[in-house]
């Protein structure tokens, strides 16, 4: 179980658990999701592709109080757990969880924001657990099929936010550009200032421009003293605290 300020994630039956990089995606992608929506006339619509526990859908609903969120999940156990997590949250009336492949998903609307934390392993060893393989390996959602789904489901004025390692981000970029999607924002996520980025949050739209680039460092070291000694301790950076403050109980 992972408790946030406004909701709780039960995750005992899902292959993919709550992780720091997914929380960063949920917080960063939804900072301005409702900025173009007139408060008295429109409701923003957000899609979470491969919702797993429902984490990104719940973060999106919390950050965007007028948004309607659709979440799609193919795995049986993850789908049922997402249903339970959403039902137990304050946002149950604004989130709908649907079971199935995003390749087959045919809603009557298009979305203002699409969030994706997709599988990205290609040639790695398979797990004996089929649910783990679905969550991690691109066999179940190849990048070309993901891009096709996004272009089919997103408004022309919409934004697509995706989390990937750096190498896979480059691969996705090529496919996205061929489909007319262009990165407008990049957040490079690293463990500390001495480490290279291990994940990239990318925002795509149909408008061609040079992407803004930022780096978010999760940890920094500080000296902590008591009466007998001083020792170095790893703590969260102020930037990380600021980004996750609305969600993490410890901030």
TrEMBL record:
Spell out the subcellular localization from the entry.
Cytoplasm
Q: Which residues form the Methyltransferase small domain?
A: 42-127
Q: Cross-referenced Pfam families, in alphabetical order?
A: MTS (PF05175)
Question: What is the name attached to this protein's record?
Answer: tRNA1(Val) (adenine(37)-N6)-methyltransferase
InterPro entries with a match to the protein in the record: SAM-dependent_MTases_sf, Small_mtfrase_dom, tRNA_Adenine-N(6)_MTase, tRNA_adenine-N6_MeTrfase
GO MF annotation list: tRNA (adenine-N6)-methyltransferase activity
Cross-referenced CDD domains: AdoMet_MTases (cd02440)
Catalytic activity as recorded in UniProt: adenosine(37) in tRNA1(Val) + S-adenosyl-L-methionine = N(6)-methyladenosine(37) in tRNA1(Val) + S-adenosyl-L-homocysteine + H(+)
């Amino acid at each position: 179980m992972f408790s946030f300020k406004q909701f709780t994630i039960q995750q005992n039956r899902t292959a993919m658990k709550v992780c720091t990089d997914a929380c960063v995606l949920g917080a960063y992608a939804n900072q301005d999701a409702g900025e173009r929506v007139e408060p008295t006339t429109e409701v923003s619509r957000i899609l979470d592709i491969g919702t797993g526990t429902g984490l990104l859908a719940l973060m999106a609903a919390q950050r965007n109080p007028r948004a309607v969120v659709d979440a799609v999940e193919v795995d049986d156990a993850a789908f049922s757990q997402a249903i339970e997590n959403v039902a137990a949250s304050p946002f149950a009336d604004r989130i709908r969880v649907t079971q199935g492949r995003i390749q087959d998903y045919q809603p009557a609307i298009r979305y203002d924001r699409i969030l994706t934390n997709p599988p990205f392993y290609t040639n790695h060893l398979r797990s004996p657990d089929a649910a783990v393989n679905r969550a991690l390996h691109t066999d179940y959602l190849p990048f070309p099929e993901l891009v096709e789904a996004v272009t089919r489901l997103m408004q022309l004025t919409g934004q697509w936010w995706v989390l990937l390692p750096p190498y896979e981000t480059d691969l996705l970029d090529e496919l996205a550009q061929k489909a007319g999607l262009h990165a407008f924002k990049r957040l490079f996520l690293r463990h500390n200032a001495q480490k290279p980025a291990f994940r990239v949050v990318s925002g795509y739209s149909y408008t061609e421009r040079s992407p803004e680039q930022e780096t978010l460092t999760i940890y920094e070291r500080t000296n902590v003293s008591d009466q007998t000694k001083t020792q170095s301790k790893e703590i969260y950076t102020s930037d990380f605290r600021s980004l996750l403050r609305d969600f993490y109980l410890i901030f």
